[in-house]
Design a protein that fits this description.
Elements (H helix, E strand, L loop, with lengths): L6 E5 L4 H12 L3 E6 L6 H4 L8 E5 L12 E4 L6 H4 L3 H22 L2 E7 L26 H21 L3 E6 L2 E2 L10 H10 L4 E4 L5 E3 L1 E2 H13 L8 E3 L4 E3 H12 L5 E4 L14 H7 L7 H17 L9
Parallel strand pairs: 1-2, 1-4, 2-3, 4-5, 5-6, 6-11, 7-10, 8-13
Antiparallel strand pairs: 9-12
Helix pairs in contact: 1-7, 4-5, 6-8, 6-10, 8-10
Bound molecules: nicotinamide-adenine-dinucleotide and uridine-5'-diphosphate (UDP).
The site of uridine-5'-diphosphate has 16 residues, from helix 6 and strand 8.
Length: 324
């Protein structure tokens, strides 16, 4: 049978970012295959898509090869929060490296275009600020974050070698901290941690003195950037930074969340985890120039939507937090 729709594979499609991406691609009418092993993703995240004729779910571990016929691949499979990726660090590296090899092999075999969800973590604890794509990074090869950082760095290397050696049509995006509805409530990332702590009247756990900075991008902005990169010209393969250049200290984030939730919670100090980057902010000049993309949702606005989601999720844990 001849396929007229674009068949798109989203690995890690039942996760936080992947589920939003699947939702958008399904709404655009594409044939979407969501592949996930449900390590950190959930069926609730994509439950509302299961009945759609142009959505299909495949339970599979990307470390093992798989044979599918598709036109595009978004490779997102990999736990993203420090707690989850450090749970089984060997598996994290395997997922990034063997997952990339398996997906690049598929892209080569069927001639698919393939996008890698890389990360700001490839810059490590940066000595250059803000981070531009031509900065090579400052990464510890043997620390607790290395399984994630080095796995993602190796995946970038594989993407560019398949591109040069086998002419695979690649795209690489470096995603900076992204937040929004469907973040895993227990994944330990700062936005979900602080919101849940504030909503339940628990102390907000500030690691270190809270002067370390991050730039937070709302998920809808990120999905738009990722899709623009996939749809962009073939001569622009990246890597390209995607993130919100607004930079906040983690203490400011805690105070903002307490204010937005009207919470009585206090802020308490906890030790700063090893190798926790002290500052991070994307230079998004390249994305602005080549993709005409920049975030449109301010932090307070995005936090309100996320707080609303977690309130609904706490009332109905089996539901999807009213995100459909
Ligand atoms: P997430 O943990 O919610 O999603 C990852 C998904 O991959 C989950 O559904 C998980 O079950 C699945 N997965 C993990 N290992 C797998 C395997 N071996 N086989 C098949 N599926 C597997 O995380 P997220 O925040 O949605 O991140 C998605 C991607 O974006 C990741 O590759 C991550 O590295 C990247 N990224 C995210 C952020 C962010 O701030 N959210 C920042 C930088 C990069
Ligand atoms: N953080 C914090 N309290 C928490 C969780 C995280 O102060 O309960 C800090 C963490 O030390 C880091 C920042 O918030 O400096 C962002 O952490 P996250 O795990 O969300 O992302 P990443 O470190 O990967 O950017």
């Amino acid at each position: 049978m001849i396929h007229l729709k674009t068949r798109i594979l989203v690995t890690g499609g039942a996760g936080f970012l992947g589920s939003h991406l699947c939702e958008r691609l399904v709404a655009e009418g594409h044939d979407v295959l969501c592949l996930d092993n449900f390590f950190t993703g959930t069926k609730e995240n994509i439950g509302h898509l299961l009945g759609k004729p142009n959505f299909e779910l495949i339970r599979h571990d990307l470390v093992a090869p798989i044979f599918l016929e598709v036109d595009q691949i978004y490779n997102l499979a990999c736990p993203a929060s420090p707690i989850h990726y450090q749970y089984n660090p060997v598996k994290t590296t395997k997922t990034s490296v063997m997952g990339a090899i398996n997906m690049l092999g598929m892209a080569k075999r069927v001639g698919a275009k393939i996008l890698q969800a890389s990360t700001s973590e490839i810059y490590g604890n940066p000595t250059v600020h803000p981070q531009k794509e031509d900065y090579w990074g400052n990464v510890n090869t043997i620390g607790p974050r290395s399984c994630y950082d080095e796995g993602k760095r190796c995946a970038e290397t594989l993407f560019f070698d398949y591109h040069r050696q086998n002419r695979v049509n690649i795209r690489v995006v470096r995603i900076f901290n992204t937040y929004g509805p469907r973040m895993h409530p227990n994944d330990g990332r700062v936005v979900s941690n602080f919101i849940i702590q504030a909503l339940t009247g628990k102390d907000l756990t500030l690691y270190g003195d809270g002067s370390q900075t991050r730039s937070f991008c709302y998920v809808d902005d990120m999905v738009e950037g990722v899709i623009r990169m996939m749809s962009g010209p073939d001569d622009f393969v990246g890597p390209v930074n995607l993130g919100n250049p607004g930079e906040f200290s983690i203490r400011e984030l805690a105070e903002t969340i307490i204010r937005l939730t009207d919470s009585q919670s206090a802020i308490v100090s906890r030790p700063l985890p090893q190798d926790d980057p002290l500052q991070r902010k994307p230079d998004i000049g390249l994305a602005q120039q080549r993709l005409n993309w920049q975030p449109t949702i301010q932090l307070a606005q995005g936090l309100e939507k996320t707080i609303d989601y977690f309130k609904k999720k706490m009332r109905d844990p089996a539901g999807n937090g009213g995100t459909t």
